[in-house]
Amino acid sequence: MKRLLAFLSVACSLVFIAGCQSDGPTKTLEVAEVTRSVFYAPLYVALSEGFFEEEDLSIELTTTWGGDKTMTALLSGGADIALVGSETSIYVAGQEATDPAINFAALTQTDGTFLVARDQVDSFQWSDLKGTTFLGQRKGGMPQMVGEFVLKQHDINPQNDLTLLQNVDFGNIPSAFASGTGDYVQLFEPQASTFEKEGLGHVIASFGAESGRVPYTSFMAKQSMIEKDEDALIRFASAIYRGQQYVEKEDSTTIAMSIQTYFEDTELDILTSAVERYKDQGSYATDPLLTEEAWATLLAIMDEAGELPLHVPFDELVNTAIASKSME
Fold it and tell me: What structural domains does the chain harbor?
């Protein structure tokens, strides 16, 4: 949390350059994604199936590996759009930003992490975690907050009932677990399935299935970008909506084949099983509209985790007009 706020303090002082100029009719948008995960399949489908091109958009996608880095890219003008946990927009608002980050399109609607055990666990019970070492996610990020929310639902105090490790950088968590750190770890797909296939761990539970609907990851743009180029964001959201509908309607193998270019080191069967897991638990939002009910759930989870800097009204940090127009 402190690291994120430090990044934000620097970024908020920088000059924002909204959008990228194009030499022709195609608009170029720079998008920063917080991680590379099958959890974001509708985005990769929209890219691979040409949905953005059909909206006269060219997308330059960069993986920034972590909420703090992703939000810094957005605030400093290094990206036009950020794909990151919705909580980060609230942290920015807590810094009294003059040009806040606005959520304009939802991508996911549950937690996207799975509980992976180092050793095979028969008849897993959440109480098995007590007394073990748990390699968690960054403090103040959605994975960690939802993870703690689930643990508390199962009468586990994350601070007292287990050894919670949060000193590993987001991008290095999988390798840290693979090298022997922790008894359990919280991982996204396809890393969880890859570890399972390679014998490095065993997927034993889903945080998404346990926590229910959460406005987990959304696309954000600065308010100045929305005011200057709302049309481009509507077209962007329209392509995302088509990607969401594709993921909703197609089978897991077809989806895996569509996104395989974005996971060149991952075998098709792993991608297929990962997509299937997310589809089964309803992780993919079926449209880009972020609801007020979902926002209230986010605030409640942040408050429970002790990470809510202020209660921000839904309409201050969420723009529903863009998503609504994108579906027309």
Answer: 2-110+214-326 (3.40.190.10), 113-211 (3.40.190.10)
